[in-house]
Write a sequence for this structure.
């Protein structure tokens, strides 16, 4: 281990985690995590990114002490994750969180505050601040049963912060929300960083990574494929664009092919795929040559292939890690 | 000390859940209805009317108490995992055992509250019909409370590792056998086969002897209750509960909550 990895600025440190689940009637072992290592630095927004089923939630459950690793070791603020006392520095918002829905927003926050060892006066004070902070003061005395998805997500965030922890873990915090709800949560996460908290966030949405994360680790099929800054990752994983022509002069087509674009005939039309940065040039040239354009659309590659190509390119450039 | 505050917080919230959950009210309502039926029945008959009242009333209290203990207890831990409410709770600075104890004492407090309400109803009916109320009644109610504590611990234990379906089978099974082990042992002693005699003795020793918490006959017949008839079962019951909860604690500390 290098000296850098053991530095005090590391808030979370994960080494060689593995997890086997027993599945089916025969309790067959299935390895869902293998050799997971990464670290989260103080006061950053860290994205734990990967397609659905990659193992993000499983890793987070190990960090939260809900399940136990089959191998490896993980620490948060220097404590083994199997301990409990240090969790007063830790906040957690699970994926699609569920809370006691017979309680009101105020009651549930008071309940969590008391569990964290706050005196009832201090808990009341924190609850008031947090209800304002997440914009739920107006619904404080309604039962959670009546809350919308977005309101539950915000009460979940408040619950994670009730004891003013140093590091907050969020599992897909924007999933299932409408655009307004997503923006609200995004703004709150950015404010957390301003307040000096470290944020660990699971997500499979690249836009969220782009807008929020300082650094990322990419997990695909239970293995870490990349760890580094978001800028480097997105640079390497630049998206491509599909342009569909209804007619394209043959000499133009061959010129594009020489430049390395893929050409495909689709229903009497011609579709080419070019890098996003080349779109304007290609269009200008093609239109000048008399081509007729039907559509220009971003290429929706599967998340996994974006992750993999990003990882591949980053590794080719030799700057992963 | 901190630990006690956390367990209290969880327990109080469990009571609050029960209070806001109407099903418990209906059960108490039915128990009181049954006690009332006992009163009605006793007015129809001229002989031994108090005994009928007391038999029906005490049986209703014991049965409904046990029913609530079992059918809330079997989901006590499992439902928290199933509904994923346990995730945020365990991410706070508390141990899994504290969580278990919080849930346990919460349900127990709820049951004792209900027992007090039902005993109150019983006492009122007794006074209205001039049936005797003796210290044997108080002793009987205390031991019913102990039996409930033991039942809840068993249900909690099963709910810590299996589904409510299986947990209810196990708990109801133990409840029935627990009331029969004495009789089984007596029967077994008459057997010619040594192995059968041994087995029934072992069963009686290992399984909870729930009949030891039954003082209803003393109460109904206004028999004198010796102090040891209360203290021994209490010590036995508390010891048994502690053992069962330790086992449950070992299980929750080790299992994955996924
Ligand atoms: N309780 C479980 N039992 C068995 N397999 C599971 C369980 N939970 C998750 N898995 C499997 O583990 C893998 C990772 O799941 P998960 O961590 O939830 O992925 P993510 O959060 O990245 O979408 C998946 O293949 C999933 O099927
Ligand atoms: Mg997930």
């Amino acid at each position: 281990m290098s000296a850098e990895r053991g530095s005090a600025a590391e808030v979370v440190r994960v080494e060689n985690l593995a997890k086997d689940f027993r599945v089916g009637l025969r309790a067959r072992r299935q390895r869902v995590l293998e050799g997971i290592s990464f670290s989260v630095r103080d006061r950053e927004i860290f994205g734990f990114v990967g397609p659905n089923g990659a193992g993000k939630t499983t890793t987070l459950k190990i960090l939260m002490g809900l399940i136990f690793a089959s191998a490896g070791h993980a620490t948060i603020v220097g404590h083994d994750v199997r301990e409990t006392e240090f969790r007063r520095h830790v906040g957690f918002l699970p994926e699609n969180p569920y809370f006691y829905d017979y309680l009101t927003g105020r009651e549930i926050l008071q309940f969590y505050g008391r569990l964290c060892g706050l005196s009832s006066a201090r808990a009341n004070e924190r609850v008031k601040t947090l209800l304002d902070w997440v914009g739920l003061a107006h619904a404080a005395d309604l039962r959670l049963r009546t809350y919308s998805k977005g309101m539950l997500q915000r009460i979940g965030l408040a619950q994670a912060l009730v004891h003013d922890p140093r590091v907050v873990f969020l599992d897909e915090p924007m999933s299932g929300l409408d655009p307004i709800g997503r923006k609200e949560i995004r703004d709150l996460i950015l404010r957390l960083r301003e307040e000096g908290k470290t944020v660990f966030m699971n997500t499979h949405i690249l836009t969220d990574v782009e807008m929020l994360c300082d650094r990322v680790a990419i997990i695909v099929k239970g293995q870490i494929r990349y760890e580094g800054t978001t800028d480097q990752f997105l640079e390497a994983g630049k998206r491509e664009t599909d342009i569909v022509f209804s007619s394209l002069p043959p000499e133009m087509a061959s010129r594009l092919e020489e430049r390395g674009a893929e050409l495909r005939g689709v229903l009497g039309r011609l579709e080419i795929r070019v890098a996003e940065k080349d779109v304007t040039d290609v269009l200008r040239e093609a239109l000048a040559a008399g081509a007729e354009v039907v559509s220009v659309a971003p290429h929706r590659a599967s998340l996994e292939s974006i992750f993999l190509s990003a990882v591949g390119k980053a590794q080719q450039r030799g700057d992963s890690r | 000390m901190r630990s006690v505050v956390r367990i209290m917080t969880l327990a109080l919230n469990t009571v609050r859940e029960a209070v806001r959950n109407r099903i418990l009210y209906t059960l108490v309502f039915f128990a009181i209805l049954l006690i009332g039926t006992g009163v009605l029945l006793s007015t129809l008959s001229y002989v031994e009317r108090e005994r009928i009242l007391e038999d029906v009333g005490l049986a209703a209290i014991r049965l409904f108490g046990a029913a609530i203990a079992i059918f809330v207890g079997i989901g006590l831990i499992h439902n928290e995992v199933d509904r994923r409410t346990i995730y945020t709770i365990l991410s706070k600075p508390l141990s899994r055992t504290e969580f278990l104890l919080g849930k346990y004492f919460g349900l127990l407090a709820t049951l004792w509250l209900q027992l007090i309400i039902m005993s109150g109803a019983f006492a009122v009916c007794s006074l209205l019909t001039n049936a005797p109320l003796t210290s044997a009644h108080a002793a009987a109610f205390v031991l019913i409370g102990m039996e409930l504590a033991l039942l809840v611990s068993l249900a909690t234990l099963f709910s810590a590792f299996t589904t409510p379906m299986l947990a209810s089978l196990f708990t109801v099974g133990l409840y029935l056998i627990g009331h029969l082990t004495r009789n089984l042992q007596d029967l077994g002693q008459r057997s010619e086969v040594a192995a059968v005699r041994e087995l029934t003795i072992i069963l009686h020793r290992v399984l909870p002897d729930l009949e030891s918490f039954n003082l209803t006959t003393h109460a109904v017949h206004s028999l004198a209750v010796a102090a040891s008839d209360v203290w021994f079962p209490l010590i036995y019951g508390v010891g048994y509960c502690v053992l069962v909860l330790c086992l449950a604690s070992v299980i929750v500390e080790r299992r994955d909550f996924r």
